[in-house]
Specification:
By secondary structure, the chain is an alpha+beta fold. It is 18% helix and 41% strand.
């Protein structure tokens, strides 16, 4: 693995740590003109779009913790794919990726000049599995 890949992995890990801790200095990891994508939020432009996205969880997200030790990193040039799980509590209900329907994710980072220039987050934002109608194969499947 190249040194640039290692640097990008380190930066992505730092992103998850700061974001999980609700640290405002997470924005320092992003370029001013960074692009963000999150399901149901859509696209945002600029580092402050991360804060706009997070505001959608105000009053409901009690905590989130990504499972750092089980991440899969797939580097490719300026890109880094991170697949993993998280656990947490939202609106009084807990989830744990791999145990409950919610909590699996895949993020695609793009880096420029040692910062995040693009972050696309792919997951089901129904962390607690409350959207019963869309469990087309039943809720009792192995996660």
């Amino acid at each position: 693995m190249e040194a640039n890949d290692q640097a990008n992995i380190k930066l992505a890990r730092e992103y998850f740590i700061r974001a999980d801790g609700g640290r405002p200095d997470v924005l320092e990891l992003f370029h001013e003109d960074a692009e963000l994508y999150f399901p149901k939020f859509g696209f945002g432009s600029g580092r402050n779009s991360f804060l706009e996205m997070v505001k959608g969880f105000e009053g409901s997200l009690e905590y989130i913790q990504h499972d750092y030790d089980s991440f899969t990193f797939i580097p490719s040039g300026d890109y880094l794919i991170v697949e993993g799980t998280s656990h947490g509590r939202i609106s009084g209900k807990s989830w744990a990726g791999g145990t409950t329907p919610g909590g699996r994710f895949c993020n695609i980072f793009k880096f420029r000049e040692g910062r995040i220039s693009s972050l696309h987050i792919y997951l089901d934002p129904d962390y607690a599995g409350e959207d019963e109608a869309r469990f087309r194969w039943g809720k009792n499947r192995q996660w």
